[in-house]
Amino acid sequence: MKKNVFLFFLAVFAVLFTGCQNNESDFPSSDNPTVVVSTKEIYGAPSRKFEIKAALADDLGLKSVRIQIPELSLDKVIAFATDPLLKSYDLSYFFEVPSNRGTSEAFKIKLTITDVSGNAIDEDINLRLDGEFTAPSITMITPKEGAVILLSTSNQMPVNFVVNDDSGIDYIQIQCAALGIDETVQLTGSPQSYTFNKTYTLPVTADNYVLTITAKDKFVIPNTGTLNVNVVATNEYPAIYLCDQPKGTNLTTDAVGVPMYFHDKNGQDFEFKYYADKDNKEIYFLGQESDFAPHCFGLNTSGELVDDVASTPIILPTKGYYVIKVNPNTLKYTATKYTPSSKVWTDVANGLWHDEEVKRKPFVSVCGSGIQGADWDTWTAWVQTGLHLANNPNNPYQLVGEYTLTGQMEATFTGQWWSPSWRLIKNGVATMSPGENGNAKYPAAPGVYKVVLDTELERLFVTKK
């Protein structure tokens, strides 16, 4: 009898317990959940992430969404809280395609959306791995970035560039609101390469203009490339640069100092100090920083200075320091050799850090950013010996080294507690402190660079190794 009573109460308890559990987990019946995907076809590629986007909703509450691509070992369940109930959810899920998959493969992405009432629906999305995600490349022939157009000579601006794209080019667009330029060229046949060449007339007003080139490709999900080119239209040259590189050299490869900015300017009389590191050094004067065109000043067959891209170089006959003066309007120049009288920083490679100044030996290292191993602490500059500059055995006024740049560079070349120090400001100018404030930031491709700090010229040269 006792056994039967025990079993009766156990059964009642079980029913009550089960009832309580059901009351906590059961929800009333409801309509099926809904899903609206952003696209029914997604393009991906090996080793590239793609995004699955969808708007999920349910009249009572969502329970979960399951994302499956069995062939790619993807089986992800996102569960939603039920207190409070979630009636809508914007799905944004990223997944990287394994590197060993082929570009010709295609898969189904299966989404299973379940609501709290137990209703479930499936939605399939096509995944293709033959996606093309590279924007059209735009190669500017003229004008180059920072090009100077001398209005007193000509107000014509030739615009010449080449666009390339693997999936074919849809259109190109040239815009400059200040010049009233807004031209679109719609291409037929989806060419993979297109050359634009047209000359625009500039107003007589001297000003800086931004030319915007846009190109769109013909891929199913189009890619767009844009290039902005700054152009200076002027009645006189704002700057002249001294270039000692062979004609045709890419002048945008190096980080700082090539070509070299002038030292002094009075009207259109420009003055440089320059070090020729060998006899018969060849130089040009340029009217723009990034290219030999359109203004390249060299010699003609009569030995006269001309503004001609086809000109030959000016020759500095012997090694040493020069004061060079040039006027791009009168086309006159002089080059006079001189002996520097500024301080020579000797034996910097054997510097010594010491709190007592009399026991200290000067060293020259670097503080800054974008330089591997450097920060803005002079103690770091001291302990990171790979950042220390050494004397150039061939020129007592030059300190040399080799740095690895990691990106945009900003620098002050310094000893202990900023003594001595040369602050790198605009245009490769390295002024000795106390001097002009305001470190400049220089874009640079990551890599190894040669560094030359010329303390006589107060110029820095950071050139790709």
TrEMBL record:
Keyword set, alphabetical order: Signal
Signal peptide (residue range): 1-22
Domain of life: Bacteria
Species this protein is from: Flavobacterium bizetiae
Name of the protein in question: SusE outer membrane protein domain-containing protein
Keyword Signal: yes
